[in-house]
Amino acid sequence: QVQLVESGGGLVQPGGSLRLSCAASGSIFSIYHMGWYRQAPGKERELVASITRGGSTNYADSVKGRFTISRDNTKNTMYLQMNSLKPEDTAVYYCNTIPRGAWGQGTQVTVSS
After folding, report:
1. 8 A C-beta contact, residue 110 and residue 94
2. Do the beta carbons of residue 89 and residue 81 sit within 8 Å?
3. Residue 1 pLDDT > 90, yes or no?
4. How confident is the model at residue 30 (pLDDT cuts 50, 70, 90)?
5. How large is the average pLDDT for residues 82-96?
6. Chain CA centroid to CA 62, Å
7. Are 3 and 76 a contacting pair, CB within 8 Å?
8. Contacts of range 66-72, beta carbons closer than 8 Å, 24 or more positions apart
9. Under 8 Å between Cβ of 18 and 6
10. What burial class does residue 68 get, using C-beta atoms within 10 Å of its C-beta: 0-12 exposed, 13-18 middle, 19+ buried?
11. For residue 8, what pLDDT band results from cuts at 50, 70 and 90?
């Protein structure tokens, strides 16, 4: 089973950008379909972006055109480039395989002026 560690979150003003990273270890990262999920206070965890092992991507309507998911199999790392951030993007962001395995700690993203 793959172990995942998220990083790159922080506090950013509306309209700003962040890049999240997901470092994988313990298994062959390249064989997995992967996704970025987020959970806002009082809401259910949702899938916001996914990438297949072949590199095909898909996005939730709420982030389409603003977020970009990518992966570097040589570095066992997945990324989420987040641009034009909005206060409603505030959440804890998690990465996971698809189908999901164990959850990591996540990384907090706060969009506020």
Report:
1. no
2. no
3. no
4. confident
5. 98
6. 14
7. no
8. 67/36, 69/34, 69/36, 71/29, 71/34
9. no
10. middle
11. very high
Strand 33-39 versus strand 46-51 pairing type: antiparallel
Q: Which amino acid would we find at residue 19? A: R
C-alpha angle with apex 18: 96 to 92, nearest 5 degrees? 45
Q: How far apart are CA 87 and CA 101, in angstroms?
A: 29
Q: Is 53 helix (H, G, I), strand (E, B) or coil?
A: coil
Q: Please, are residues 104 and 6 in contact by the beta-carbon 8 Å criterion?
A: yes
- With H, G, I as helix, E, B as strand and everything else as coil, classify residue 34: strand
Distance CA 62, CA 47 (A): 11
Which residues share a beta bridge with 18?
A: 82
Residue type, 107: T
